[in-house]
Amino acid sequence: MNPTDILLSIAIVGIYTIIYVYLKSKYDDNKTIIKLFVIGFIYATIITGILYYLIKFIAS
Question: HSE-up of 52 (CA within 13 Å, CB side)?
C-alpha cells in the first residue's frame, strides 16, 4: 500500500471519529445527529481529498 494511501485512511478515520464523538455528546435528537453526521462526513471527505492531492503534488 502506498504511504499516501495509508495517511489518507488514517485522516479519514480520525476526522470521522472526532465528528462522531462530538455530535453524540452535544445533541440528543437522532435526526439532528444523522443530518450533522452526514454533513460532517461530506466535509471530512472533501478535506481529505484535498489533502490527498496536495500530498500527491508535493511528493511528485
Answer: 14
Tell me the three cell numbers of residue 20: 462522531
Instruction: Look up the pTM and report it.
Output: 0.58
| DSSP assignment letter at 58 | H
Q: Is the pLDDT of residue 1 over 60?
A: no
- CB of 15 closer than 8 Å to CB of 55: no
Distances (CA, A) of 38 to 3, 20, 24, 49, 54: 28, 10, 13, 16, 24
Detail the DSSP E strand segments found in 17-60: none
Question: Residue type at 27?
Answer: Y
Residue 2 sits at φ, ψ, to 5 deg, of: -65, 140
